[in-house]
Amino acid sequence: MMISKIKDFLGFDIKAEKYKLSNDDTFGMISDANKPDKWVFSTCGYCGVGCGLYIGVKDGKAVYTKGNPKHFVNQGTLCPKGLSEHQMINSPHRIGTPLIKRQGELKPATWDEAFTKVSDEFKRIAKTHGEKAVSVIGTGQLLTEEFYTLGKFVQLGLKTNNFDGNTTLCMASAVMGYKQSLGSDGPVGSYEDFEKADTIFLIGANIADNHPILTLHINKNKNPKKKVIVIDPRASKTSQMADIYVPVKPRTDLALFNGLAYIIIEQGWEDEGYIQANTNGYKELKKHLQDYPPQEVANITGIDVKTLYELARQFVATDAVLSAWTMGVNQSFMGTDTVSSIINLHLLTGHIGREGAGPFSITGQCNAMGTRETGFTSSLPGYRNFGDEKALKEYATIVNVPENIIPTARGYKYAEIIDAIDRGEIKALWITATNPLVSFVNQDKLRKTLAKLDLLVVQDAFLGDTAQIADVVFAAATWGEKEGVYTNSERRCNKANKAVEPLGDAKSDFDIVLEFSKYFEGVNEMLFNGWSEPRDAFEEWRKVSKGQLCDYSGIDYELLEKEGGIQWPCNEANPLGTKRLYTPDMAFRTADQKAKLLCLDWFPMAEPQTPEFPVILNTGRTVEQWHTRTKTRSIDILNDLAPEAWVDVSPTDALKLKVKSGDRMSLSSPRGRVDDVIVRVTGSVREGTVFVPFHFNTELVNALTSESFCPKSGEPNFKQTAIQLHSDEVPEGLTLEKPEIAGEIEHIKTTWEGIKTSVAFKEKEVVSQV
What we know:
Layout: H1 2-10, E1 21-24, E2 28-31, E3 38-43, E4 52-58, E5 61-67, H2 80-83, H3 85-89, E6 99-102, E7 105-108, H4 111-129, E8 134-138, H5 144-157, E9 163-165, H6 172-182, H7 192-196, E10 199-203, H8 207-210, H9 214-219, E11 227-231, E12 244-246, H10 253-266, H11 272-278, E13 279-280, H12 282-288, H13 294-301, H14 305-316, E14 321-325, H15 327-330, H16 335-349, E15 358-361, H17 368-374, H18 389-399, H19 414-422, E16 428-432, H20 436-439, H21 443-450, E17 455-460, H22 465-468, E18 472-475, E19 484-487, E20 492-496, H23 509-517, H24 523-527, H25 534-545, H26 557-563, E21 566-567, E22 595-596, E23 615-620, H27 636-641, E24 646-649, H28 651-657, E25 664-669, E26 672-681, E27 689-693, E28 721-726, H29 739-769
Parallel strand pairs: 8-9, 8-16, 10-11, 10-14, 11-12, 13-22, 14-15, 16-17, 17-18, 23-27, 24-26
Antiparallel strand pairs: 1-2, 3-4, 4-5, 6-7, 6-18, 19-20, 20-21, 23-28, 24-27, 25-26, 25-28
Helix pairs in contact: 5-23, 5-25, 6-16, 10-13, 10-14, 10-16, 19-21
């Protein structure tokens, strides 16, 4: 033993047996110790890129993950999370049996005990307080068949429309922006457009960290004159790819895009033919933009006038311009209108519905698209609008249910559900596959609010923070243990297959809902008659989607495996799918089939800097971790790379605070304080701003974030929170350097209530148009 340790220490023992390789018929030389008995075709279950992969199975356990070399999206590559995804299935934090809280502790229970307790409580609460006193918050992580089944049960079986998902925290602004500008949700472009575009604008999108496989598609673009323009307050990894980096001031992007639209019209660069044939609202927009002349926009954004003209010229100087954005745009109290301001630029210049051109939202979660299409949250299934009587009757006929049980209006959004719990209106909450005790804003208020519930039910595969405070836990299967489809950012429907059996007594989310529905008299027979497997839900979804923009009627499981994914709409006319929306032969989804050029206003930050809180906090993701780490916290390679949160601080602020990289500091806001955060001094953030990843419950950055939401989408303003920094040497923190800023603060505060009223009024006006 001692000799072995000495050889190991001196490097003489190369552990030949441990690292022995052997030949695999599918992937060549791989680790002999983990050589699979079989490979199962599937799709990654993390982000919205939708990478194809194979799960290696040995002795009934997942032991390997390898990228599918034939899949268009990733062509055999995977990010660190995808490469280690099989380890997530075997996490020690998995839940293998239903749990019920007894004497303050969660104890194992049978499925019948769990279903009986929850159904009895739901019925009691509905009888006493009304059916809408039961609420559900979902996710973007389930399979499409599970979303459809869950949404159908919640809305038509439990008869509550107080149903939303954690997708409201990431993609809701893109949804509403598409709706108010183009008439329907649905990303316009395709990953192929990254390869075909002459000019690529990446806006608030750190794809190098958050969607790294997409950088491969940009690298495949061999146009020698290609330009990549990154617009972001933070000089992220993605900015290092840029030909032009635009360090816009935090939350001034809407003003920037209005300013670019002003210049395009001023210079006569707009596409008059396209505007006349395909849009409404040009005259009104032209008048509105007079409030955004170049010098005024330069003052707001910090981008000089010369650069503004160059950016506008880049938008019209080439044949194909692609704009892609993620959370930097969406997670804003002006998120919906910022999305529409980007779409305005594409409509003014005709850069839409063509190869390499279009406004393209990059989705955060593996199946956020699936819930948007099927899930009964922001619309009826198939992008049918709530309140559309014709659409309601159509859906009722297809699925053979009474018209009077179909909701005619959307219920509360995510944050509104939390507020309704706080005021005692909602008594029971069922959470599926999400962890708000890390991911939601203003954590102190959230935790006090959830404590007011009569019943908290959490359905999850992992015992995360929220599951630990639940009254009942439904033990769910996870990725690799169930079958169905995901739809990625480019509308590509991909097959995910079952590779191993669920852990212990855990059930797939599809089976949980199906079985739970039997505890409500007549519901299973009415909604799921004859259903026994996910394919049953998918076949009904094909019928429901037929003729809609998100048409799946031409897709089946076999075609997905053969083709490696299909982009909707897919039907008789497009049997192998559709690469782009709103091509010359595809009308917009408005009543007159024309897109809307919208008049959109920029406002100052919802929570401005003050002398007490002079620093702007920006939160986001890092490539090594996923959301709240329920999936990734037990994977060694990911935790070794990113074991804790950190705070990026500019060199100037570090000097003032007398800190260096590796030191520890505290962050505070009017809502809370986070201590012992490691410092990283970097030029990637500007003076007066910091960045902290939100994944970690040990450094709970959402204890600081504010309750500021986009009034149209309900999406939180995660990206700008006024905070203070405290170091050992400077415990009192930083001060505002510019006296004039402090003088303006009271003016901003006094006008903000009027601004919110104005925005709320415009929300009602736009929603009525949609």
